[in-house]
Design goal:
This protein is about 25% helix and about 25% strand. By secondary structure, the chain is α+β, with helices and mostly antiparallel strands. About 55% of the residues are buried.
Length: about 850
């Protein structure tokens, strides 16, 4: 995972010399957004982009490295400059042109590279117009040679034009912003209208049939600085009838459809946890648990081309003199690294979700058999099974002296995309650190407590490791992670570790009752939630984790001290609610100091956990309502009309920054699976894609659904753990599952099959009370079927997803009537199980 501290980037270019190329200096150690063609492998080494080119190509353009989305303006002058050299002298071409068919050229010039780095430049005038990061491209043509070669470039620049690069977020937005998924019956239901009107506006709530079910007046709020919108608030809490396909309208503007139901939150509780099985390293991801689209072989288990995780040495510069077997654990984020400080808080959050449910709620939702994982029938609660996959990895990161290595990952940044089992990079351990060691101590002590009555031997092993780690940390209280260790993985340096000491001591004291740990707890400057503020907690600020354990789990502290901790949670929760009451898009987030930061969505959720615990400690409904407001923001009630959780909502994130979930870059790979959380808005604009697209964006709009936008659209285990904690809590507070209203459509599917093909007849029946004036059927094939021809409908297939829309003559379907369509297909597999018509799930006959 990348972090803000791992990046360096240039400031705005001088007026009239607008830089068009991004990441042309390669100082961050990453090649993004530079790409390479087949037969070319990009690596950033020593601050240069070096392309290893396989020989035997015919034309110069048969081997390429380049960057897309480069804006050009017709009639404007540009200067293309770069430094370059080759292992073997050869001629290359520097080119500017169009990145999509018909691939029109703007300019090209040949340069004879030598084995010595030299500076090259040429100037041209563009005859094509690709403004605002359109289809413009710069590229180096490296082919046409019989021999293998390596060409390195640096300081790549394209300046000129009259209009600064940049633009606006390309995602379509609505003026009526709602939770795109669902509002829970019995709880407040609020939305946001974008409007400059100063007078209240009438809103209308319609059901799936288009009938008006409620109306009311908006409350004008005026300018909302964080989003840049002028807003009104809409409160339709008085309407509480469960159903699907509701829309909220003001004048001609309508929202995306949404449900009134608790069911989606209950489903998200498990989908957010399924993320962790997807991220497992060192084991096959089996189709029976994730479906064939997301199945893959085990990564990093010493099967070629992997160099494996079973015998990993330290980085050369630290030369620890031993290797460790660190197979297992979760890939931290969109890359293949595994980090103790991220894995620590993520594992703790899952374990705390279970412990909190046992002590204050209902743990039955996490019983054995509730998750789709291989351990689902071993008699252990599935949430603990998933957390153990990471806890065991943390144990493996412990050095012989008791300290824990900070992280391990590839020696250089892994190319995007790269499936885990195809990663050929050497793996390296970074140095041990006090922060990582205390993460291990805290989580191992917490886990020991939870496994005490499940597996006494394992519990004892965990406690021994926790004690050893804590002792080692006290002997090395200031061994900090190197802030410059950011090649191949983020640095995750942390200059203050008093918070980790407090957290680890709190866990060890709660598990053991030992007086030495108690003394460290009560003497800490963080004691009694002294460090909890609206800024919340994260991997580098962990003191509140200790407070949560001391407030939730039984221990020997004075009752007054525990009460004091709980009162701080309520006080901070009140501060959040006060601030949320002034926002256009209510969310528990403090942007007053740093704006919206890398992983802002996880901060929203960690603060929602504070609100949830305040409700647990006080019973006050206002805190519960605040938690659901946070979820509404993440699921679509935000200025981008976007659900930041994959698979949830009509406009949900798809193209997260990930080496395997990389369909945007490789059509054979999947999009992000349901339940994956995007990092969210980051007003610092810390990657090349957002630096080009989002210059000048209001804070809450500094986000784009692009795989290259790693500073806003990456995923991470410690972000999804926050989502899992909050949705688990919210599902518990949502009451019994609601029963959806009867379906107003029915689909009968009958297929005649033969070896390698089928012919299907499909009947669509309107079982509702309103005529269809048009219809759209949608379903997904579970196998390899491909529609080859069809009749009585317009058929279309993308991947496994199939749609059929009406012809001009059969769109009208009256109540009780049917329309008959069909298709032929190649391939084989089971019949589709679920069909929707006009977005509604239909009964199957």
């Amino acid at each position: 995972m990348l972090t803000a501290t791992s990046l360096q980037f240039a400031g705005t270019a001088a007026a009239a010399e607008y830089e068009r190329v991004l990441n042309g200096k390669f100082d961050s150690g990453s090649a993004d957004p530079w790409w390479s063609s087949a037969g070319v492998t990009n690596r950033v080494t020593g601050g240069e982009l070096c392309a290893a080119v396989t020989g035997g190509t015919t034309n110069p353009w048969d081997a390429l490295i380049g960057q897309n989305g480069v804006p050009f303006e017709s009639g404007q002058s540009y200067t293309f400059s770069f430094d370059a050299y080759a292992t073997t002298a050869q001629t290359v071409a520097a080119a500017a042109g169009e990145s999509v068919s018909p691939y029109r050229g703007i300019a090209k010039q040949d340069f004879a590279l030598t084995t010595t780095k030299q500076h090259y430049t040429f100037t041209f005038t563009s005859a094509l117009d690709f403004p605002d990061a359109g289809n413009g491209q710069v590229a180096f043509q490296l082919g046409g040679q019989t021999f293998d070669n390596t060409i390195c470039v640096d300081n790549v620049s394209m300046v000129g034009g009259v209009k600064p690069p940049g633009g606006v977020n390309p995602n379509p937005t609505k003026k009526v912003q709602v939770d795109l998924v669902a509002y829970v019956p019995g709880l407040p239901k609020r939305a946001t209208l974008v409007s400059t009107a100063t007078a209240p506006q009438q809103w209308t709530l319609k059901n799936s049939a288009g009938a008006t079910v409620a109306t009311g007046q908006t409350a004008p709020k005026g300018a909302d600085a964080t989003s840049g919108d002028s807003v009104h608030l809409i409160d339709f809490s008085s309407f509480d009838t469960p159903g699907t396909g509701y829309t909220l309208s003001v004048g001609a503007d309508s929202s995306f459809p949404f449900d009134i139901s608790a069911d989606p939150i209950k489903k998200l509780r498990y989908d957010s946890l399924a993320f962790f099985y997807h991220q497992r390293s060192g084991t096959p991801i089996d189709a029976q648990y994730v479906g064939s689209e997301y199945a893959r072989p085990a990564g990093h288990v010493n099967v070629a081309p992997n160099q494996g995780d079973n015998n990993v040495p330290c980085r050369a510069e630290i030369s620890c003199g031993y290797t460790l077997d660190v197979r297992g654990g979760w890939y931290d984020a969109g890359d293949h690294g595994k980090y103790v400080v991220n894995g620590g808080i993520a594992a703790w959050q899952l374990l705390n979700s279970y412990e909190r449910a046992v002590r204050l709620g209902d743990a039955s939702a996490f019983r054995d058999g509730t998750l789709a994982i291989p351990e689902k029938s071993n008699g252990v609660p599935d949430l603990l099974d998933e957390a153990r996959w990471e806890v065991d990895f943390l144990l493996k990161m412990q050095a012989p002296d008791g300290m824990a290595h900070h992280k391990m990952h590839d020696a250089a940044w892994t190319a995007l995309p790269t499936r885990p089992e195809l990663d050929d990079q050497p793996r390296r351990l970074s140095a041990t650190s006090t922060a990582a060691t205390l993460n291990l101590a805290a989580v191992a002590a917490q886990a020991s407590r939870l496994w005490r009555d499940i597996d006494a031997t394992y519990s004892a092993k965990l406690l021994a490791a926790a004690r050893k780690a804590y002792t080692a940390a006290k002997a090395n209280p200031a061994k900090l992670a190197d802030p410059n260790d950011n090649v191949g993985g983020g640095a995750y340096d942390d200059k203050t570790v008093t918070d980790e000491f407090y957290w680890a001591a709190a866990e060890l004291y709660t598990t053991t009752g030992d007086s030495s740990y108690r003394a460290d707890v009560t003497s800490s400057p963080h004691y009694k939630a002294a460090g909890l503020t609206r800024a919340g907690f994260y991997w580098g600020g962990t003191a509140p984790l200790g407070d949560i354990t001391l407030a939730v789990a039984p221990n020997g502290l004075p009752a007054a001290d525990v009460t004091a901790i709980k009162s701080v949670f309520a006080s901070v929760a009140d501060q959040h609610l006060t601030a949320m009451g002034q926002m256009g898009y209510a969310t528990p987030y403090d942007n007053s100091t740093d704006g919206y930061v890398w992983g802002s969505n996880s901060a929203v959720l960690n603060n929602a956990q504070v609100l949830a615990l305040a409700h647990d400690f006080t019973g006050a409904a206002k805190y519960r309502d605040g938690v659901f407001e946070a979820l509404h923001y993440l699921l679509g009630r935000n200025p981008l009309s976007t659900s930041y959780v994959a698979g949830y909502g009509d406009q949900a994130v798809r193209n997260v920054h990930h080496r395997f979930w990389a369909k945007q870059n490789d059509a054979t790979l999947p999009i992000a699976p349901p339940g994956s959380l995007s990092g969210g808005p980051n007003s610092a604009l810390q990657d090349p894609v957002v630096q080009r697209l989002l210059v000048g964006c209001p804070q809450q709009k500094c986000w784009v659904d692009d795989i290259g936008a790693y500073s806003v659209n990456e995923v991470a285990v410690n972000w999804n753990s926050a989502l899992a904690w909050v949705t688990g809590w919210a599902a518990e507070k949502s009451g019994k599952p609601t029963t959806p209203p009867p379906s107003d459509c029915e689909v009968k599917y009958d297929a005649n099959k033969w070896q390698g093909g089928l012919s299907a007849h499909v009947a669509l029946k309107n079982t509702g009370t309103t005529a269809w004036t048009s219809w759209k059927l949608a379903f997904s094939f579970p196998g390899t079927q491909k529609v080859t021809s069809g009749w009585s409908a317009n058929w279309n297939q993308t991947g496994r997803d199939v749609t059929a829309t009406n012809m001009s003559w059969n769109g009208q379907v009256d109540p009780g009537k049917s329309v008959y369509i069909g298709f032929n297909a190649s391939g084989g597999g089971d019949d589709p199980k679920t069909f929707t018509i006009n977005g509604k799930t239909c009964k199957t006959g």
